[in-house]
Write a structure and sequence with these properties.
The complex is a heterotetramer, with 2 copies of chain A and 2 copies of chain B.
Chain A: E1 2-5, H1 6-20, E2 24-28, H2 44-52, E3 53-55, H3 60-71, E4 76-80, H4 91-97, H5 101-104, E5 114-119, H6 134-139, E6 144-146, H7 151-163, E7 168-173, H8 176-179, E8 181-184, E9 197-200, E10 205-209, H9 212-226, E11 231-235, E12 238-240, H10 244-254, E13 257-260, H11 269-280, E14 290-292, H12 304-310, H13 314-325
Parallel strand pairs in A: 2-3, 2-4, 4-5, 5-7, 6-7, 10-11, 10-13, 13-14
Antiparallel strand pairs in A: 1-8, 6-12, 9-11
Chain B: H1 17-42, H2 56-64, E1 72-74, H3 80-85, H4 90-97, E2 115-116, E3 121-124, H5 132-146, E4 152-157, H6 164-176, E5 180-186, E6 189-190, E7 193-194, H7 195-198, E8 215-219, H8 223-238, E9 244-249, H9 268-273, H10 279-289, H11 295-317
The chains are: A alpha/beta, B alpha/beta.
The structure holds thiamine diphosphate (2 copies) and magnesium ion (MG) (2 copies).
Chain lengths: 327, 339, 327, 339
């Protein structure tokens, strides 16, 4: 057991998975001697060499297409997209191709590939280093999408992703990389895809969230506790498939649901969570299904003032908690 | 009874006369089956078909230079004759077109020729043009990591040459000298878009220079020439010397698919001139000039092919469609979670 | 006024908009002498010439990138993506770029471009000629997305799209092209973006839907009427921005909501509609917010039997209506 | 007081001695301002900066051969000196880096150098590498439809050459002989990825042959050579003869951005050798050899530039940040609907 940041957990997991299984390779832009722009792959090229740590040309469709080809030919590639905002050129290979390999070949071929994607804002990234890109992946049958928010979950879910025989998208919130620390066991473990986790039990209402917003929600829940409101915080952890049972159980139990996300709300993860609750918890709810997200603007201005105004914050979450608690 | 030729000669050898006749048989069988599929479409039994008519020499000769026991084949929808050359039976081909339960490629989930082959490493994940090229680079990369000397052959059309994926794949293959053959069947049309609107140069092969490997143009109606070019590329790749881009010029004798009408966009002369470039006619004439084939033997080959296609049609026509419940299989291999 | 199919309305509108405004150009694969694979552009090259009807190389990113560049330099391009399944290579130019031109230049540049995309299934298209691709576009701030289901709406919304100074995605359900006929006025008219329409008024419940499913829902509503259930059918028509007011008004009034869509449900338009209802109609509802869609499979098998099993149908909608009416 | 040079000579002329000195002044000013921006980053005032240090000769000479009154410029994040050459003031540049309200490119919504220029048709919609190339083809296409003889210049790096968009744009420009100049600033690195891992050939310019237009390699530290090459390309484009691909070889004197540390991936020798390729040193020596510049005049140019940068820094430092409410403007221009 040791205390690690999220990025340290990611790096250690890549290393241990590469030691564990020779077919695990890492590929992406600057993953070699640069060690990745966030240093997720720092040192890997020294240990595993250029054959297994491949600095790719600047071409995301290529990165994912090559990962897919290598995956169907015996490798377990872990591709890195440098920033989520640059994944769009690869959508064709991921959403169009990888997601349907098993289905389209009637189970003859499988694509055991992992794509790690640092996403999200609050890092002065402006319109093109702040995007949340979970919607399309989370909508697509044949893909799995995980979004760990803690070092513990980062390790367990990345290990699961790499060992899974189908494509898994791993969304790492880049603001959590160094911000979030936590205990990580030294021994090997995995976390099942599709299981949410109650990160804070509570009785008065349920916050459903993921990513950086988990941490803001936990802070808001502490502030609310001081005001006598006992908030449960459910961390989705997996965005496809959503853990509908866990969502419904918690919302039914507390009777109120607040969904908090950083991504813009229209047609998003929070929409689906709301739909699940609206369909399954209808007779147990004591208040409207509430969502808190940023305004419907391209995410998100470079201006620090506007960036802060755009992002949900513990204070904004607390305000939403208070409002919902009064209904 | 005519069978398909899944027993290529030693790919390092020149083609023998006997083998040439065998390849001719495969081409003829492919042609008859291809025609039958169009007929089945007109009868409302096959939803859609793309044809390899005009591309047969190219495809059969290309496959002949490879080793199906270890090489990888990434095809698109037009490699009908290549699939025949790789030993796919007429019944298997028809099951794809008729969406029958035992369609070996995808169990009737996908268009004909899409999915993965049950016996050789041939696959075609999607209809989306040019996605197979980066995938082929990845397949080849894996072989280099495994220390295998397998070669990856990836087929694409002149239209596909315009896609970004094509460029990205060739560039990467050039950087790492990957054992991959980029095989372009240039029929001068992408549906209706003629080559002059597709690219500002005469040849796709000329692009190879920009990636650091050889580009070869070859007459795609010439079995011997295509075989030679492919053989050289295969040897190069197996020896670790890197990729080759081969461009075979062919004619698309029929409209793009059964849904298309090429008289809307091709002139009568353009259509008429293709008759001289029919690879079956050309190979038949060559074989006869070389005394490898008599008129009688040729007629027999045709009759046998026709009969073979009839038998296969009757068989497959009577076969069942897949049941509904299999539709839910093979989304992801996961326990738990509502995938 | 004349009776037209959807594809006839599209073609006539392209023609009249090109006559009306010299800067309107059409570009895409096979849009020239082939007239488009669905014949949406049939005859346009004869009237307007190769300069304004441009057969593009086989490259969707190029098509949309060129449209964008031409749009910011004085043209009003109408790009055609041949099938929705092939739009993935262009996501970078549409979602990444076009959507943020006005915002990212602080209003200095605008991109008056239209992208027409035939989508949807029920045409024996298999996994790659049947996809519904509305989710990502509908999620993206800076884009507008319309999905007309009738010839009247096809004309009015396409005209609006072309005259709008920002990028508009026009989703045309390819099964409606020849299947759906209706009266279309000869005179010029437009339909505002963002306005849903009640296509059948009713009192017992609201079906919210769009595209081909509008027609199936209307059929189901007729069948339900025979059983004494009076169903209102709301046609979204615009998917971004959704007409939240119209959705909330209708659902609140009838007290029950069934959302019908052809796209797979997880994280989709139906999720957002459910979320809107769950947030705004909570105190007016008499039953759970219900969704009907296909199973979570890659859309959709080539096998005709399986395709039919995949697609929602009037019968399946009727069954959902009946079930919801009994709550 | 030194001003930037937004009054290029007749682009069809050779560069005069006086004009060369003016370009030198722009380069020096760009360099000082560029250095200042890095300092502001280290002080925590500028969130991020990419630098044009080492690229100045290329950019200034390229712009000099164009006509800002009608031509179009699609830049990426590294065209700091090009923006100066196009008359952007130091204050305007700094407003972008410091995210001030009056940032002329994007009102502080975007990274520095992103958005659209208020006076010339220069823009840069996104940080996403190579998206600007198809856009440039579209801009040029519109000009041909309008009958304008404007030229579109689109800048990109060696890394960008690997993207599919680059290929698609060049191919299309070749088909339609569009008036566009593909201008590659090849500094041999894409962040840390060296050119050998980026492509299998020596030169990006060699790709032009595969698209049917000229590709030109030029020493990007040589103002006269870059100007000549660009001038020829501009004339070609204006005359309707189509695109040119220009590849200027330059050095990226600093790490990729203020967030990068190039000692992680560049050898000490590789870093050291760059000193000889500093374009300011090279041009200064040339001017002195040609007796166009004295040591004193050079020192004055440096002093003036430094002063100019100080003034601008003080001015902009005191300026306000944008208010929150402007954040909601300019999403789409629509009445009705909750965009
Ligand atoms: C990405 C993509 N865009 C468009 C299509 C539609 N389409 C199918 S085949 C085709 C033409 C392909 O031409 P070419 O590559 O020359 O192959 P050929 O059919 O001539 O063998 C087009 C445009 C597609 N399948 N994929
Ligand atoms: C599509 C995309 N992928 C990755 C990045 C991250 N990135 C920013 S700059 C850069 C390197 C660009 O290299 P090059 O084109 O040579 O330009 P240079 O910085 O050397 O001038 C990378 C990988 C990006 N901005 N866009
Ligand atoms: Mg073709
Ligand atoms: Mg570079």
């Amino acid at each position: 057991m040791s205390e690690q940041t999220v990025i340290e957990a990611v790096r250690a997991t890549l290393q241990s998975e590469m030691r564990r299984d020779d077919t695990v390779i890492v590929l992406g832009e600057d993953v070699g001697s640069r060690g990745g722009v966030f240093l997720a792959t720092d040192g890997l090229i020294d240990e595993f060499g250029e054959n297994r740590v491949i600095d790719m040309p600047l071409a995301e469709s290529l990165i994912c297409g090559v990962a897919l080809g290598a995956a169907v030919n015996g490798m377990r590639p872990v591709a890195e997209i440098q920033f989520a905002d640059f994944v769009w050129p690869a959508i064709n290979q991921l959403v169009g191709e990888a997601s349907k390999v098993r289905y389209g070949t009637n189970g003859v071929k499988t694509a055991p590939m992992t794509v790690r994607i640092p996403y999200g804002g609050g890092v002065r990234g402006g319109l093109y280093h702040s995007q949340s890109i979970e919607v399309l992946f989370s909508h697509t049958p044949g893909l799995s999408v995980v979004a760990p928010a803690t070092p513990y979950d980062a390790k367990g879910l990345l290990a699961t992703a790499i060992r899974t025989d189908d494509p898994v998208i791993v969304l790492e919130h880049k603001r959590t990389y160094r911000l979030v620390k936590g205990d990580v066991p030294d021994e090997d473990y995995t976390i099942p895809i599709g299981k949410a986790e109650i990160k804070r039990p509570g009785t008065d209402m349920t916050i459903v969230t993921y990513g950086l917003m988990l941490h803001y929600s936990l802070q808001a829940a502490e502030m609310a506790a001081a005001n006598g409101i006992d908030v449960e915080v459910l961390d989705l952890r997996t965005l496809r498939p959503l853990d509908a049972d866990a969502i419904a159980e918690s919302a039914s139990r507390t009777g109120k649901a607040l969904i908090v996300q950083e991504d813009t709300p229209a047609v998003s993860i929070s929409s689906e969570v709301a739909a699940i609750i609206g369909e399954r918890c209808f007779f147990d709810l004591d208040g409207p299904i509430t969502r808190l997200g940023p305004p419907e603007l391209p995410p998100m201005p470079f201006s620090p003032i506007q960036e802060a105004a755009f992002m949900p914050s513990p204070e904004k979450i607390l305000a939403a908690i208070t409002k919902l608690s009064e209904i | 009874m005519l069978t398909t030729t899944n027993k290529p000669s030693d790919p390092t050898e020149q083609l023998s006369g006997t083998r040439l006749v065998e390849l001719y048989q495969t081409m003829v069988l492919s042609r008859y089956l291809d025609e039958r599929v169009w007929l089945l479409n007109r009868q409302g039994k096959a939803a859609i078909a793309a044809s390899a008519q005009g591309h047969e020499a190219t495809q059969v000769a290309c496959i002949e230079a490879t080793d199906p026991s270890k090489d990888h084949y990434l095809i698109y929808y037009r490699q009908f004759a290549a699939m025949m050359a790789l030993g796919t039976t007429p019944e298997e081909m028809l099951r794809g077109f008729l969406a029958k339960e035992d369609d070996p490629m995808s169990g009737a989930r996908q268009f004909p020729l899409h999915g993965a082959h049950p016996r050789v490493d041939l696959f075609n994940f999607s209809n989306v043009i040019a996605t197979q090229l980066p995938q082929a680079a990845g397949v080849a990369l894996a072989d280099t990591l495994k220390g295998s000397d397998a070669v990856t052959i990836v087929f694409f059309g002149d239209g596909a040459s315009s896609q970004g994926d094509t460029h990205e794949a060739m560039n990467f293959a050039g950087v790492h000298k990957l054992p991959v053959i980029f095989f372009c069947e240039n029929n001068r049309y992408a549906i209706s878009v003629p080559i002059e609107k597709q690219m500002g140069v005469e040849s796709v092969a000329s692009r190879a220079a920009g990636y650091g490997f050889p580009g070869v143009q070859v007459d795609g109606t010439d079995v011997v020439a295509v075989h030679e070019a492919t053989k050289a590329a295969v040897e190069r790749a197996r020896a670790g010397d890197g990729p080759t881009l081969i461009e075979a010029s062919v004619e698309r004798l029929l409209p793009h698919t059964t849904d298309d009408d090429h008289t809307r966009y091709r002139s009568a002369e353009d259509i008429a001139q293709m008759a001289n470039r029919d690879p079956i006619k050309i190979l038949s004439e060559l074989l006869k000039r070389r005394d490898l084939l008599t008129d009688d033997a040729d007629a027999e080959i045709h009759a046998a092919a026709k009969k073979r296609v009839n038998v296969a049609t009757d068989t497959v026509d009577a076969e069942p469609y897949p049941s509904v419940d299999t539709m839910f299989d093979h989304v992801v291999d996961s326990v738990g979670g509502n995938f």
